[in-house]
Design a protein that fits this description.
alpha/beta; Rossmann fold; globular; Putative NADH-flavin reductase; NAD(P)-bd_dom; NAD(P)-bd_dom_sf
């Protein structure tokens, strides 16, 4: 399986790359900074240097050509302002989906955010509200496309070691989840047809990860 990950140098993406490459899959991560290529190589991936805020869908489609799965895991990051929340968390997500359609890559997984569907009531933080609205707009854009899409909304992210047990459902309520477990779920979703056309929430739980995927 060939998997292309937007936001390839992110904390979840690097974990995901290591898991997929360890299982013998080819993984390509889109990165803005060529200096990050070595970090992807260290976990078994390849880097494609592309700035999703500066290229067109055709350039991204060239990288996606021949892929089996496209995963959008990019984000503007916690230090960014309102403008980049829109250009990355919404705009780059839509561009990546455009490129997937052009390249004929049907399986498309997008990492969203818990609370994207209730941005106005969740927080008084103006920048975080813009972020959630951008994530919601990206979800809505994806839902309108002829792709085999899944949106995964993780809860609050931690760097704790993965437990291998999760709660993965259409609605989970608030909670936290380790980045290790998010990456493992994303790897499993690549080949879980029951997740197609669904928006799933993910937090820590008591169900073994493999069983949680089977339960969908």
């Amino acid at each position: 399986m060939r998997v292309v990950i937007a936001g390839g140098h992110g904390q979840i993406a690097l974990r995901l790359t290591k898991l997929l490459a360890g299982d013998g899959h080819e993984v390509v991560g889109l990165v803005r900074n060529a200096d990050h290529s070595g970090d992807l190589a260290a976990v078994g991936g390849q880097a494609a240097v592309l700035d999703l805020e500066a290229v067109d869908a055709g350039a991204v489609a060239d990288v996606l050509a021949g892929a089996d799965v496209a995963i959008f895991a990019a984000g503007a990051g916690p230090g960014s302002g309102k403008a980049r929340k829109d250009t990355v968390d919404r705009g780059a997500a839509a561009l990546f989906a455009d490129a997937a359609e052009q390249a004929g890559v049907r399986r498309h997984i997008q990492v969203g955010s818990m609370g994207a569907d209730r941005a106005d009531s969740l927080t008084d933080d103006e920048v975080f509200t813009v972020y959630l609205k951008a994530k919601w707009a990206a979800e809505e854009d994806l839902r309108g496309r002829d792709l085999d899409w899944t949106v995964l909304r993780p809860g609050s992210l931690t760097n704790d070691p993965g437990t291998g047990t999760v709660r993965l459902e259409d609605k989970t309520g608030n909670g936290s989840i380790s980045r290790d477990d998010v990456a493992a779920v994303l790897a499993g979703l690549c080949d879980t047809p029951a997740s197609i056309g669904r928006t799933l929430e993910l937090i820590g739980g008591d169900t073994p990860l493999s069983q949680a995927l089977k339960n969908l």
